[in-house]
Amino acid sequence: MARQIRQDPGRDWTVAEMAGRAALSRAQFTRRFVAQLGMSPAQYLIQARIDRAHQLLTENGMTVTQVASALGYTDVPYFSRQYKQRTGKPPSTARP
């Protein structure tokens, strides 16, 4: 499941959907996910999005607004806050 999240971080993933794909209850899926990856599915998704955002900003030269939209964020300031919380820098500084 982690690989699928990394491949499509902009998708609107839900824990219920991921648990269903794994044929587990949401609670059991979350416990196993945390045990294997050290963070909740929601936190992993945020990290996957931020990692992809960094890649898009540095390699593709996309604007912050374009990146936020591509990754499923409808609120650009919220995206910027999450990016800064995880990287320590605002997303605008990642652009070449």
Task: Please provide a written account of the structure.
This protein has 96 residues and is an all-alpha fold. It has six helices and no strands. The model has no long low-confidence stretch (mean pLDDT 93). It is elongated. Helix 2 crosses helix 3. The relative contact order is 0.14.
Short synopsis of the structure:
Helices cover 67% and strands 0% of the residues. With 96 residues, it is mainly α.
Residue share in helix: 55-70%
Specify the number of helices. 6
What percentage of amino acids are in beta strands? under 5%
Span of the ends, CA to CA: 32 Å
Per DSSP E runs of 2 or more residues, the count of β-strands stands at 0
Largest sheet, if any?
none
Question: Low-confidence segments, ≥5 residues, pLDDT <50?
Answer: none
What would you call the structural class?
mainly alpha
SSE order in H/E notation? HHHHHH
Radius of gyration: 14 Å
Shape descriptor: elongated
Q: Give average pLDDT, whole number.
A: 93
